[in-house]
Amino acid sequence: MAEWIVSLIGQLGYVGITLLMCLENLFPPIPSELIMPLAGFAVSQGKMNLGLVIFAGVAGTILGALPWYYLGYRMKADRLRRFFDRYGKWLGISGKDIVKSQQWFQRHGNKAVLWGRLIPGVRTLISLPAGIAAMNFAQFVLFSLIGIVAWVTILTYLGFSLGKEYHLVSDYMDTITTVVGIALLIGIIFFLGKRFLRRHQSHS
């Protein structure tokens, strides 16, 4: 996988980054945690421009997110779940993944699209429930872009900073993901607690 990514970026440059990040969103097993840090390493060697690398990564990611949004918009959740239970193994996606992303969206609303872009296992599929819920397309693109720019910039910067050790980025991202997940969990508990107290006060 790593050799193929290196070869494609070497041959196609920024277009290769865009293509890889687009494919990464269509086929989750292709890891952005390897693509963008590798591009960041190339920047540290003076072979690529940092701004153009980030732009290429963001462009590819948003392009890869659009087909999932459209699919969710056109199909019902139950139908999608059955489809991925049957054929999802070829894409590395299961019906449970669809349910997980839908529950995430229902819990957090439109902001789920933003935060979901920072959570592995959710960020690629968050486009599906957004489409199922017929989320306003302009808002979908805006919230997606904010999260995608953050994700791509973090990965690229880590690759730039680590240099030849760019492959260690996945370890750093595990820590960052844990921190983000805990922060979101605390936020959810706080929100639900306030809601419970309001209901309790209204009935008393």
Automatic annotation (TrEMBL):
Provide the topology term for how it sits in the membrane: Multi-pass membrane protein
- Indicate where this protein is primarily found: membrane
Residue ranges constituting the VTT domain according to the UniProt record: 30-159
Q: Which InterPro entries match?
A: DedA_domain, VTT_dom
Which compartments does it reside in?
Cell membrane
> Which spans are transmembrane here?
12-30, 50-71, 140-160, 172-192
Keywords assigned by UniProt? Answer: Cell membrane, Membrane, Transmembrane, Transmembrane helix
Pfam families with a match to the protein in the record: VTT_dom
Q: Which GO terms describe its cellular component?
A: plasma membrane
Q: Which family does it belong to?
A: Belongs to the DedA family.
Name by which UniProt lists this protein: DedA family protein
